[in-house]
């Protein structure tokens, strides 16, 4: 019997799936966001909660997403719908796919602004602008950039076009080709930076900050942020991994590929933290500096290194690439759905989506200048896009997916799709997805709401 495939195409082999999904996972979430939210939330205790969330919630949900995608072989919205109907449930389960596609567009809008900062730094490094820069000047320079809406708009636009171009190329000629080139290089450069950081003098202090467990630093809000980040960093709860799973070969084992992706993503985040915090402490910078952390610490480090501007240039290129491969996966679920729904080609579908993201992105970049006084609650538009997606929509999407996979899909279908060699792994996954993951997400939500109103 011919294997059922997606109309959008398929990965050449399972390694391409691993690389593409790792490309989706490893991005600004690891190198930019993880260090700065760890810094804002006090370090070690936050990191521990984050690691527990990855293991107990993130990994089981990632398995479910790949499984649903591969069985549905369509965009997340339609895969969820068909699997629901096939299991005798309401087609309204596709709502989870809808929330996801929307979250993808929202994340993309602020992600693109940050990726734009990265591109600006690529240009600056190429220009030699950061040679010998001290921490004070580096901070100043970042501040000036944020105030300059025009420059931000240029780089944001460049990034949206870069992503649109790849997604418009389709699964093989766009997504697969882009993934194959840059992923290996990213890892090499990250370890070189780590080596530099180890010699910078304050490595021990940075290490301590990341791994010293001080529970007094922990609040329920920080736990919510750690949970949300575990979804964000693994690209879960919104359909990216589900869409990529729908292009995965049937023979490949889901369990082991997912483990590989999660381990790589976690390693990159920890290495990024180990690279950034020693520089923070060696230069008396503030670990709680917020979104600017990476943009201030890295130029300082590269500015002092012999030949650092070449290094810095390469490194920001690679962060840009990591952001690029992630943003591609942010766009793919909605793009695939538009193609299925309206029967149009990828190019018009991606152009329309890109235009939407571009507009939303303008409000995000304006949050740092012409719209900085415009607040929702205490949040700027940029903050709101980040908070609403990472801390609400992704965990909620994940909760739906866990309930769907754990309680709604028939057990034999799950066993068939997962084909774990040992019963133990199936049972472990099944227990996590039915009980641990949904209870953890629901409990953390409930506790935060409770704290808000008391
Ligand atoms: N996982 C990506 C990162 O860490 C961000 C992302 C989130 C990508 C959700 C796709 C979906 O940067
Ligand atoms: Na990530």
UniProtKB/TrEMBL annotation:
CDD domains: SLC6sbd_Tyt1-Like (cd10336)
Membrane topology field: Multi-pass membrane protein
Entry keyword annotation includes Methyltransferase: no
Keyword Transmembrane helix attached: yes
Subcellular location as annotated: Membrane
SUPFAM superfamilies: SNF-like (SSF161070)
CC per GO annotation: membrane
GO molecular function: symporter activity
Keywords: Membrane, Symport, Transmembrane, Transmembrane helix, Transport
Signal peptide: none
Chain segments annotated as transmembrane: 12-32, 44-68, 95-120, 152-171, 183-203, 223-245, 257-281, 310-335, 347-368, 388-407, 428-450
NCBIfam families linked to this entry: Na_transp
Family under the similarity heading: Belongs to the sodium:neurotransmitter symporter (SNF) (TC 2.A.22) family.
Protein name: Transporter
Organism of this sequence: Neptunomonas qingdaonensis
